[in-house]
Sequence to fold (32 residues):
Amino acid sequence: MIIILYLLASSGMMSSLFVLCLLVYIADFCLM
Fold:
């Protein structure tokens, strides 16, 4: 988890947008 936060901080906006989309996709998959 800490590594993910570190990558977000170093990579910036694009990375956080990607992770956000990934979380939405996983949540959608879990709800089905």
User: Anything to note?
Assistant: The chain has one domain: 2-31. The chain is about 90% helix and 0% strand. Residues 13-31 form the longest helix (19 residues). The chain has a mean pLDDT of 79.
